[in-house]
Amino acid sequence: AQTVTQSQPEMSVQEAETVTLSCTYDTSENNYYLFWYKQPPSRQMILVIRQEAYKQQNATENRFSVNFQKAAKSFSLKISDSQLGDTAMYFCAFMTTDSWGKLQFGAGTQVVVTP
Amino acid sequence: ETGVTQSPTHLIKTRGQQVTLRCSSQSGHNTVSWYQQALGQGPQFIFQYYREEENGRGNFPPRFSGLQFPNYSSELNVNALELDDSALYLCASSPGGLAGQAEAFFGQGTRLTVV
């Protein structure tokens, strides 16, 4: 069975500081994608960043970057220069190439950015 | 904000009733996936429709069914509602093809409450 584990239910960070969210996953597949989604109170799931497993280089999107450790099956998200608008639920998700379109999500980490 | 729209935004139903939720996919997207997100949990994959055919199903009973129309909009139907069906239902659309499946855009969801 494929699983996604987020071990931090909630993280608090001050504005302009950095926070790192952890995610581990379990799969026997070699080809897959990993994602971080953000879900603010508006409920809409917004893609933050995506990593393709065959790429060794870690993905970055502005203030968001990942640390992808394939052998350890670890995929952490770093939010730099945190802003109040970053307050949201963050979900790690996983999709294999033989189950296209089926995202498997972790339980989520609530990030609270304080002034 | 994406072009995926869901209706209604909120719905209250009585146990045993039937419900239909609707999703309009983003322009150019021919694949729609549905997810159930219970309170405090990550979304769970229900099923996916690709060019009007069911293309993968999660661990949900047959009383969860769907349709996709020629314009690629989609419906999720749930019969014989149970209290545990209370959740946020998310629709995601994506372009066709292998790479397209890794570019899912979500709607804002329908909050279903079963009483």
Structure commentary:
The complex is a heterodimer of chains A (115) and B (115). Chain A is mainly β and 115 residues long. Helices cover 0% and strands 52% of the residues of chain A. In chain A, strands 2, 5, 6, 10, 11 and 12 form a six-stranded mixed beta sheet that branches. Chain A has a four-stranded antiparallel beta sheet with strand order 3-9-8-7, with no helix packed on it. Chain A has a two-stranded antiparallel sheet with strand order 1-4. Chain A is globular. Chain B has strands spanning 5-7, 10-13, 19-24, 31-37, 44-50, 53-57, 64-68, 74-78, 87-94, 105-106, 110-114. In chain B, strands 2, 4, 5, 6, 9, 10 and 11 form a seven-stranded mixed beta sheet that branches. In chain B, strands 1-3-8-7 form a four-stranded antiparallel beta sheet, with no helix packed on it. In chain B, a hairpin with a 6-residue loop joins strand 4 and strand 5.
In short:
The complex is a heterodimer of chains A (115) and B (115). Chain A is mainly β and 115 residues long. Chain A contains no helices and twelve strands.
In the predicted model, the low-confidence regions of chain A spanning at least 5 consecutive residues are: none
Give the integer mean of the pLDDT values of chain B: 92
What is the 3D shape of chain B?
globular
Sketch the major β-sheet of chain B.
7 strands, mixed
The percentage of residues in β strands of chain B lies in over 45%
Query: Largest interface, by Cβ-Cβ below 8 angstroms: which chains and how many residues each?
Result: A-B, 26 and 31 residues
Rg value of chain B: 13 Å
Oligomerization state? heterodimer
Please estimate the helix content of chain A.
Answer: under 10%
Strand content of chain A: over 45%
The count of strands of chain B amounts to 11
Distance between the termini of chain A: 41 Å
Q: Count every beta strand of chain A, where a strand is a DSSP E run of 2 or more residues.
A: 12
User: Order of SSEs of chain A, N→C?
Assistant: EEEEEEEEEEEE
Given as residue ranges, the uncertain stretches of chain B (5+ residues, pLDDT < 50) are: none
Helix content of chain B: under 10%
Overall, the morphology of chain A is globular
Tell me the major beta sheet of chain A.
6 strands, mixed
